[in-house]
Design brief:
Elements: E1 2-7, H1 14-30, E2 35-37, H2 48-54, H3 61-73, E3 76-78, E4 83-87, E5 90-98, E6 104-109, E7 115-118, E8 122-125, E9 137-140, E10 145-148, H4 157-165, E11 168-174, H5 181-197, E12 200-204, E13 221-223, E14 229-232, E15 238-243, H6 246-255, H7 258-261
Parallel strand pairs: 1-2, 2-3, 10-11, 11-12
Antiparallel strand pairs: 1-15, 3-5, 4-5, 5-6, 7-8, 9-10, 12-13, 13-14
Length: 273
């Protein structure tokens, strides 16, 4: 099946972001994409100073539009970190997923908050305004089972391993790595998660805006279960297409059967809730 990653240029005007995102979703559908993903923070600039201002409930303006365009195009739509979600007086970094009938299939709240300090390069603390999610998020399609993470979640190998144990064959991480961590770790982490678990990994970033307060690395990418990069964007706004070959995944798992060779008598990773 064909996967499309929309590397959107994000402005400060929410309505413009939504309009352009929906237009690119329609374009991707017209080119045969069955599953389409938007980047982290596609409807607002990325920064703790913006989260409260742009926050919405689910359902709300942004998610209603995503639901409508998913139904219109009859696709599975992963809404990136579609919005800073407000719920019960707290804000969450939330990705909403909609099916071909427009129904909400999953809602992933970012589990690991991006609190880092690399002296002289970047300091960021999502926990100043956001609360963490407390659950894994998976959804079924006629093609395969999909697991969700958001950006910093990708650094935690245990999360990806559990998704693999639960039958996911594709992991999607809407993300916005920056100009420090992007060149160093963006592709490396994706290839590691893919090889470790013998599945496809896709990441979808906002396009780079050198004038933004937080500059995203871009380079939305798809990695196959062999660890090969099979599709990759540059820094500009674009749509990345790739065909997910589940037969290739099955062959790799048969050739190198690590999933059946794990020593569960010696070690294990478990999902607690």
């Amino acid at each position: 099946f064909r996967l499309a990653l929309i590397q959107l240029h994000v402005s400060a005007v929410k309505s413009d972001n939504l309009q352009r995102a929906c237009g690119l979703v329609r374009e991707a559908s017209a080119k045969g994409a069955k599953l389409v993903a938007l980047p982290e923070c596609f409807n607002s600039p990325y920064g703790t100073q913006y989260f409260k201002e742009y926050a919405e409930k689910i359902p709300g303006e942004s998610t209603r539009k995503l639901s409508e365009v998913a139904k219109e195009c009859s696709i599975y739509l992963i809404g990136g970190r579609s919005i800073p979600e407000e719920d019960g007086g707290k804000l969450y970094n939330t990705c909403a997923v909609f099916g071909p009938d427009g129904a909400l299939l999953a809602k992933h709240r970012k589990v690991h908050l991006f609190d880092i300090n690399v002296p002289g390069k970047i300091q960021f603390k999502e926990s100043e305004t956001l609360s963490p999610g407390n659950s894994f998020s998976m959804f079924d399609t006629p093609y395969c089972k999909v697991g969700l993470g958001i950006c910093y979640d990708m650094r935690f190998a245990e999360m990806a391993q559990i998704y693999g144990q639960k039958g996911c064959q594709l992991l999607i991480y809407p993300g916005a790595f920056n100009m420090t961590t992007g060149p160093a770790h963006w592709e490396l982490l994706q290839r590691g998660r893919a090889v470790d678990n013998q599945l496809y990994v896709a990441t979808v970033s906002p396009a780079r805006d050198e004038n933004a307060s937080y500059v995203a690395w871009g380079h939305s990418t798809v990695v196959n279960p062999w660890g090969e990069v099979i599709a990759k964007a540059g820094a500009e706004e674009t749509v990345v297409y790739t065909d997910i070959d589940l037969q290739k995944l099955a062959e790799i798992r048969q050739e190198i059967p690590i999933l059946s060779q794990k020593r569960s008598d010696l070690y294990g990773v478990e999902m607690k809730k």
